[in-house]
Amino acid sequence: MVHFKDPFEKMERENERRQHMRKALIAGNWKMNKVLTEAIEYALALKERVSEVPEVEVLICAPFPFLNPLSKVFENSPIKVGAQDLYWEPKGAYTGSVSAQMLESVGCSYVIVGHSERRHVFGDTSEDVNKKTKSALGAYLTPIVCVGEKLEERESGHTDNVLRNQMTQSLADLTKEEMLKCVMAYEPVWAIGTGRTATPHQANETQLFIRNLLKEMFDKDLAEQTRILYGGSVKPDNVYDLMSEPNLDGVLVGGASLSVESFEKLVKYSEAGEEESSDTVANQDGE
Ligand code: PEP
Prior knowledge:
Elements: H1 7-19, E1 24-29, H2 36-49, E2 56-61, H3 67-73, E3 80-83, H4 100-105, E4 110-113, H5 116-120, H6 126-138, E5 142-147, H7 151-155, H8 159-170, H9 176-179, E6 183-186, H10 200-217, H11 220-225, E7 228-230, H12 239-243, E8 250-253, H13 260-267, H14 269-284
Parallel strand pairs: 1-2, 1-8, 2-3, 3-4, 4-5, 5-6, 6-7
Helix pairs in contact: 2-13, 6-8, 8-10
Phosphoenolpyruvate (PEP) binds next to strand 8.
């Protein structure tokens, strides 16, 4: 593991993030897991455990049937509720679909769009992601727009091209004001649910590329303000090192968000860092 030798180095990076108003977002993506009783039990425990972590924003992206009950449990708490997908039409004969307006009406404030499982299992294209992003913005939801390359694309040196295409198509025709309301998530497909995490350096390098693309597509000010999350086998034992990178403004977590104990550790990642730092200082002092 790469730990900062100097605890002040970590602090400087946190300060830089804050200066650009990029409050860290720790988001759990439950995918298609849990039944209602389990969802409520988890939510009650989470509310108890993370009620006072003001430096991070906490979000649970749950399956549709749990959104309204979770919103009620999290009422008067800082924890937010998000959906994992939506359909872009506001209403009509679209059997099985859920609109942005419906999500907003049950207390959602975020929605994931373009998750790799939607892209690769259900065939969502970047044009679909663009329509979903716009309809989310129209209903005052914050879209978390996911992009990421497959293993063969990374290995053949095509990561930059893949990300450029996904971003230009998924964010097409958004105004700067609209884009300022979005969150980006870099999720390398090869790291999702595989136990294989991008190294902090790899994630940071790619997220810097994403930030530079935002600068090219919009401007410097927007690029500095946009939060870019990392997702792909994030766990309590790697979150601190990932979050110590300057271009990571949060994490989108699947597997490790399913247990409340593990998600609490992710939310409180900086406590793990403080322990590491004091251990390092103690070791440097020869204790
Ligand atoms: C995800 O669901 O977005 C994800 C990154 O999954 P995992 O953390 O399990 O790799």
